Structures are given as structure tokens and as C-alpha cells.
């Protein structure tokens, strides 16, 4: 069943920070009339991304918004006029070389849509493109419940392939690998059919195993290369881009449409009408849940994202943003935290071969130098350690706090 297009909401709330890096700078004022695809926030720095209106209408408010990680940014509240009028600026850009391609991707507001939200233009701006041997298109959607990328591969296959071809052409890369987990045979078969005529694009069916959707894990699985601690995929000759991101690049280059909507999995054991929905950015999460028939149980936890890496939603009066690949409703876990019994299971399951127990210990002690030697920054919060922990210690939040201790040391280097 194709992703269902949710009707545009009467009001959207669009944060200026929907990406890793500096928030965008708001460039509209209360009372302004805006159109779909009109820029309302310009990049606040090199690692930043522009923000666009997802509906046409009037700017009613510009308000501070508290985000998941505790930071505050501005958010633009737009009251829709119901017309969905597209801005005159929405037109296919003229691409003549690598630099103009990067600029077009930057101007489109595309970020990593698998959940990481790193600005795509920054990732692709590798300066020396001869370093890049392969581009891996990441279709390894390994978190339970979340199927928005799977749906995109089935519904928007041509756009995903076109995104691959654009990356191949302008980055001058000779090999594109579309990696899809083997529990998605329909997507594997369809992609294989669509790329059969291209000698330099191939589909790899990877064994389904969490958390191989993380780019360093995928590179190791597909290419057999280890990205060293502190290094990037480009350092081993790869660039990894999500399938939905590839589709968004195609939309931006072929149609000139910036990122204003995305596929969202609204699912879990307690959603009345689970499914994948095409949702305008800025749509209220509670409105989306109501559109899906609401929640059927009482002892339920809501998460933005998957069951492992998703962030708990204590308040559903928040907007869908660029990284919102899913909203799930699952059974609450009331297991209480106990003292660590030093079983070592967290070490056994860590995909980055870290020592979560040691990181936890030295984080409690505030020893930033030791944390640095333990490669704490390599943790990507997959929560494998937390899931397996016999004592149910919230290890990821502890590790994230430990990262905060290390950041001042890194800035000095």
C-alpha cells in the first residue's frame, strides 16, 4: 500500500533548527504571506541548512521552541490559506559543474533523512572528489516498526535512481551501491529491475541485522572497510546517503522543489490505523496521530523515531521535522534501574567495539581525558548496550553526558 498523503494542516510550526549544525536565521516577519517552497530561514553557517514553508499562508507567530536535546530555536507558525500556492522561486536549478550541484543541494534544504539530519551538501562537499570510490545508498532501515524508507523505495523508485545518477555524475563516482536489507525482497527486486541497464549501479541485499543502518556499520558490512576512530566515511573512499535523501536530491534538481514534506511511519502496537504517511514539515504530531485514528491503549510510550534510537515524546504538541522518520506507540517499560553487576554484556554487543561500562564509570567520575582514550565520541547512540543491560541502566544518556565532558578537550585540539 502506497504512503497515504495526509491533507495539509490548517497550521504548521516550522523550527529553524531541523538539522545538525547551526540553526537557520529566520527571514520572515509576522504578517508576511508565504508560499510553498519559499525560504523562511537562511543557513546560519557552513554546517547549517535553509528552511522552507510547507504550506502557503500567513506568518502568525514567531516563537521560541524547546527541542529534544534541550536547545531552543525560533519557530515560524504559518496559518494555511488552503491554496498550497507554490513559490515562483521553485524551479529546476541550472547545473553546470560540481560546484553548482553542491550549491543546488545546499539551497534545497536537503539533510540526511534517515534520522541523522546532517546537511547533505556538507557531506557531499568533499573538495577532492577523486578520493571517493563508491557511493552507498542506504536502504538498510534496520529499526523495528519504521518502514518509511522502504515505502519510498517502492513508491518513488525512479526518483531514488535518478538521485543515484545525479550523485554519480556530479561527484564523478564510478560505482553506486544500493544496500537494502534482505527482509525487503520487494524493494530489492524492484531496484534491481530499475538499475539493470546501468553497469555502474548495483543492488546489494544485506543481511538484516541491527544497527547496520549506521553508515560506518554499513561500510563495514558492504565494503569490508573499517572507518577508523575519529575519521569519516570519505577517509575510506565512501559517501553514504539515505534512499529518501537520494529521492529528495532528485526532487530538488529535477523539479526545484526544496524539502517541504517527508514520509513518516505512524505505527506501533497501539496506533489504530498504522501506516506510512506523506506529511508536510511542521505538522503537529498530535494531529498526525489523530489522523491515524488515535491511540488504542493506556500504558503506552510514544517515540519520535524507532524503538531503539527514538526519542520519547512526553508532549505531542511538537512538529514533524526533517528527521522525523517515524512516530511509534509501544508498550511502556516500567523496569527499574539497578546497580551495575559488571556482567560485560554491553561490551559484547557494542557495534563500535567500545566499552560502555568503562565510559559510564569515567563519565560519573568526570574524567574527560580517560573518556577521550575510550573513544567515547564514536558512540552513535544505537542503544544496543542499554537494551541488553541486565541492570537497565540508561547507558546512552550517561554516554551522551560523557560526550559533553569531552567536547572542550576536542575544541582545544
Class from secondary-structure proportions? alpha/beta
Number of helices: 13
Number of strands: 17
Helix content: 25-40%
> Secondary-structure element order, as H and E?
EEEEEEEEHHEHHEHEHEHEEHEEEHHHHH
What proportion of the residues form beta strands (DSSP E)? 15-25%
The largest sheet is: 6 strands, mixed
With strands numbered from the N-terminus, the spatial order across the biggest sheet is: 1-14-13-17-15-16
Average pLDDT metric: 95
Q: Low-confidence parts, pLDDT < 50 over ≥5 residues?
A: none
Distance between the termini: 51 Å
Rg is 21 Å
What general form does the structure show? Answer: globular
Q: What does this protein structure show overall?
A:
The chain is an alpha/beta fold. It has 13 helices and 17 strands. It has helices spanning 98-108, 120-124, 148-155, 157-170, 185-195, 215-223, 243-255, 285-291, 345-349, 356-365, 368-373, 384-388, 395-412; strands at 4-5, 11-15, 25-26, 33-34, 39-42, 51-52, 57-66, 72-80, 134-139, 175-181, 201-206, 238-242, 261-267, 275-280, 300-304, 311-312, 326-331. The strands form 4 sheets. A 6-stranded mixed beta sheet has the order 1-14-13-17-15-16, sandwiched between helices. A 4-stranded antiparallel beta sheet has the order 2-8-7-4, with no helix packed on it. It has a 4-stranded parallel beta sheet with strand order 11-10-9-12, with helices on both faces. A hairpin with a 6-residue loop joins strand 15 (300-304) and strand 16. Helix 4 crosses helix 7 (243-255) and helix 10 (356-365) crosses helix 13. The longest helix is centred in the C-terminal third of the chain and has 18 residues, at 395-412. The termini are far apart.
Amino acid at each position: 500500500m502506497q504512503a497515504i498523503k495526509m491533507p495539509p494542516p490548517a497550521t504548521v510550526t516550522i523550527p529553524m533548527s531541523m538539522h545538525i549544525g547551526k540553526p537557520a536565521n529566520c527571514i520572515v516577519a509576522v504578517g508576511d504571506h508565504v508560499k510553498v517552497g519559499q525560504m523562511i530561514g537562511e543557513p546560519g553557517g557552513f554546517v547549517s541548512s535553509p528552511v522552507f514553508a510547507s504550506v502557503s499562508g500567513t506568518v502568525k507567530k514567531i516563537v521560541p521552541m524547546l527541542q529534544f536535546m534541550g536547545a531552543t530555536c525560533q519557530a515560524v507558525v504559518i496559518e494555511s490559506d488552503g491554496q498550497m500556492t507554490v513559490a515562483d522561486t521553485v524551479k529546476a536549478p541550472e547545473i553546470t559543474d560540481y560546484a553548482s550541484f553542491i550549491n543546488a543541494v545546499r539551497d534545497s534544504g536537503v539533510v540526511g533523512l534517515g534520522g541523522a539530519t546532517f546537511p547533505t551538501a556538507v557531506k557531499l562537499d568533499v573538495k577532492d572528489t577523486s578520493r571517493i570510490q563508491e557511493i552507498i545508498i542506504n536502504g538498510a532501515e534496520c529499526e523495528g516498526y519504521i518502514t518509511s524508507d522502504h515505502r519510498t523505495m517502492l513508491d518513488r523508485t525512479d526518483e531514488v535512481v535518478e538521485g543515484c545518477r545525479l550523485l554519480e555524475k556530479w561527484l564523478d563516482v564510478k560505482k553506486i551501491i544500493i544496500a537494502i536489507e534482505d527482509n525487503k525482497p520487494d524493494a530489492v527486486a524492484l531496484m534491481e529491475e530499475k538499475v539493470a541497464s546501468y553497469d555502474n549501479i548495483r543492488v546489494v541485499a544485506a543481511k538484516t541485522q541491527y544497527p547496520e543502518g549506521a553508515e560506518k556499520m554499513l561500510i563495514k558490512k558492504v565494503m569490508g572497510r573499517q572507518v577508523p576512530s575519529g575519521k569519516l566515511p570519505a577517509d575510506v573512499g565512501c559517501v553514504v546517503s539515505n534512499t529518501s535523501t537520494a529521492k529528495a536530491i532528485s526532487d530538488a534538481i529535477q523539479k526545484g522543489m526544496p524539502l517541504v514534506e517527508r514520509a513518516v511511519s505512524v505505527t506501533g502496537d497501539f496506533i489504530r490505523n498504522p501506516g506510512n504517511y506523506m506529511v508536510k514539515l511542521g505538522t503537529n504530531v498530535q494531529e498526525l496521530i489523530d489522523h491515524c485514528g488515535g491511540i488504542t491503549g493506556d500504558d503506552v510510550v510514544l517515540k519520535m523515531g524507532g524503538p531503539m534510537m527514538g526519542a520519547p515524546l512526553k508532549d505531542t504538541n511538537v512538529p514533524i521535522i526533517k528527521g522525523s522518520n517515524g512516530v511509534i506507540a509501544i508498550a511502556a517499560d516500567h523496569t527499574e534501574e539497578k546497580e551495575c553487576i559488571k556482567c560485560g554484556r554491553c561490551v559484547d554487543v557494542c557495534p563500535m567495539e567500545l566499552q560502555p561500562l568503562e565510559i559510564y564509570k569515567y563519565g560519573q567520575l568526570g574524567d574527560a581525558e580517560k573518556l577521550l582514550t575510550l573513544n567515547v565520541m564514536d558512540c552513535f547512540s544505537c542503544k544496543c548496550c542499554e537494551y541488553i543491560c541486565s541492570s537497565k541502566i540508561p547507558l546512552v544518556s550517561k554516554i551522551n553526558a560523557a560526550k559533553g565532558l569531552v567536547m572542550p578537550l576536542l575544541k582545544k585540539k
